[in-house]
Design brief:
Layout: E1 2-6, H1 12-21, E2 25-29, H2 33-40, H3 51-61, E3 64-67, E4 78-81, H4 97-107, E5 115-118, H5 126-137, E6 142-145, H6 155-160, E7 165-168, H7 173-185, H8 187-191, E8 196-199, H9 201-232, H10 236-244, H11 265-278, H12 287-310, E9 317-321, H13 336-346, E10 350-354, H14 359-365, E11 370-371, H15 375-379, E12 384-387, H16 392-395, H17 399-403, E13 410-413, H18 420-425, E14 429-432
The chain binds 1,4-dihydronicotinamide adenine dinucleotide and uridine-5'-diphosphate-glucuronic acid.
Length: about 425
């Protein structure tokens, strides 16, 4: 099939390359010239395991190309819109400027019979609104909404083999045709038995934001338990194991620590709250404000813990392990690690931070911090070692060897990902979060 992908960021670049991997002819389009130059040369503009391989495969086979020229969308019959929907600067809502601009440009080139497929995460009601613009400008084209559930770090695998596919389509024959075309786009996943949910626009949009809201709530739930565990001497990791054995609850996404960050969960729950308020149903999801507050309290808690352990922050040397919002990504959007490192430095601590992939992004965002190329370099002469992003490179560190490098054997495990017994046996003061 002939596909265009408009917006080639963390979502769109992976989607374009994965579609070419599935055998489609794909053109990826973005307004960012540097990104398009890298992608055209077969280079991933960000770290994502598996992406370089599918990019290389696609560009070499001739099935995948990239351009800044939106007119190239004419060569395709199915157009995926994957531009950003960040939080607005002065509130909680999603900034829809990029989606609106992308649709306006695309509609200049859409042909009769084309299928336009929204992938960006949007406030419920957006697709119905955009369907009106499509009908006005190119009545022969159809709009579908096909939200994306991929996780960074597993993005290629999640795109090729998703847990489920959701198609929001209009009623009637047009909707049936749209669903048939999407089944062809995802033919290998459909053949493998992936559940496909065909529904209306509003449900499709809501599935996406409610899935992220549920995941965020699960994390904040366990972090709330961590707050209670901290004052009672209970161990939140054992608690999570114990409740997680109940299949109705499940152990995944019950890891307490510094909480969730990234370009999606934080902004998506805020945008959901803002949209619910607009709809006069703010009360229905008011709990999400609490989910957000619990989450942000974890970041403050870590800063307080360093202060408490060191008797102040001024001049305290802190080796920070991790800058990305989670391992296997270089993404620092709303990263708890970067925010904690910056807050410690602002309060007078001498921070040296490292990350296997995110140092360059972090340096651009926070040039005032000192960065190291390795964990060993970051923790040298440290009074406190602070592990915030649980990369295997950090969780696998040998406490004896690291102990030789630091000024004091004090470790704060912001992700409860180290073995406390092992670190204590090597003479370390170990502090987890809620354990
Ligand atoms: N990053 C992720 O893991 C996932 C993201 N999403 C959603 O996907 C959307 C995109 O997210 P990311 O890829 O993370 O954002 P991003 O910021 O990495 O990428 C957005 C891209 O859109 C481009 N763009 C902006 N305006 C444009 C226009 N008018 N025409 C063409 N390109 C334009 C930007 O230059 C940028 O490269 C968001 O709605 C996000 O919530 C959904 C699931 C997963
Ligand atoms: O809409 C999106 O963009 C995506 O958002 C999340 O994916 P992602 O942001 O890549 O990362 P997650 O693996 O969900 O982790 C999010 C944050 O939660 C934190 N987390 C995760 C799990 C856990 O138990 N505890 C915890 O604190 C992670 O460290 C990270 O900071 C969702 O998992 C995806 O399904 C969704 O498509």
């Amino acid at each position: 099939m002939r596909i265009s992908v408009i917006g080639c960021g963390y979502l769109g670049a992976v989607h374009a390359a994965a579609m070419a991997h599935l055998g489609h002819d794909v053109v990826g389009i973005d307004v960012d010239e540097a990104k398009i130059a890298a992608l055209s040369a077969g280079r991933a503009p960000f770290f994502e395991p598996g992406l370089p391989e599918v990019l290389e495969e696609g560009t070499r086979s001739g099935r995948l190309r990239f351009t800044t020229d939106l007119a190239a969308a004419r060569e395709a019959d199915i157009h995926f819109v994957a531009v950003g929907t960040p939080q607005v600067a002065d509130g909680d809502a999603a900034d829809m400027r990029f989606v609106d601009a992308a649709f306006a440009s695309l509609l200049e080139h859409a042909k009769d019979g084309d299928l336009i497929v929204g992938k960006s995460t949007v406030p419920v009601g957006t697709a119905a609104r955009l369907a009106e613009s499509v009908a006005a400008k190119q009545p022969g084209a159809t709009l579908a909404w096909n939200p994306e559930f991929l996780r960074e770090g597993f993005a290629v695998k999640d795109t090729v083999s998703p847990d489920r596919l959701v198609y929001g389509v209009p009623e009637g024959e047009r909707g049936e045709r749209a669903a048939r075309l999407l089944d062809e786009v995802y033919a290998s996943a459909v053949a493998a038995g992936t559940p496909v949910i065909v529904t209306d626009y509003a449900t499709a949009e809501l599935v996406k934001v409610s899935a992220n809201a549920f995941l965020a709530t699960k994390i904040s739930f366990i972090n709330a338990m961590a707050e209670i565990a901290e004052v009672t001497g209970a161990d939140v990791t054992k608690l999570a194991d114990a409740i997680g054995h109940d299949a109705r609850i499940g152990r995944r996404f019950l890891n307490a620590g510094v909480g969730f960050g990234g370009g999606c969960l934080p902004k998506d729950i805020r945008a959901f709250s803002a949209r619910a308020r607009e709809l006069g149903r703010g009360e229905a999801v008011q709990f999400l404000d609490e989910v957000d507050k619990i989450n942000l309290r974890r970041r403050a808690r870590v800063v307080d813990l360093v202060r408490e352990i060191s008797g102040g922050l001024d001049g305290v040397r802190v080796g920070v392990l991790g800058l990305a919002f989670k391992p296997h990504s270089d993404d620092i959007r709303d990263s708890p690690a970067l925010e904690i490192a910056m807050r410690l430095a602002d309060a007078g601590a001498i921070v040296t931070a490292t990350d296997p992939q995110a140092v360059e992004n972090a340096r651009r965002r926070a040039p005032q911090l000192t960065f190291a190329d390795s964990a060993e370099e970051a923790v040298r002469d440290a009074d406190v070692v602070l592990l915030i992003t649980e990369w295997p490179e950090f969780t696998g560190l040998d406490p004896e060897a690291v102990g030789e490098l630091v000024a004091q054997r004090v470790v704060i495990d912001g992700r409860n990902s180290l073995d406390p017994e092992r670190w204590r046996a090597a003479g370390w003061t170990y502090r987890g979060l809620g354990r």
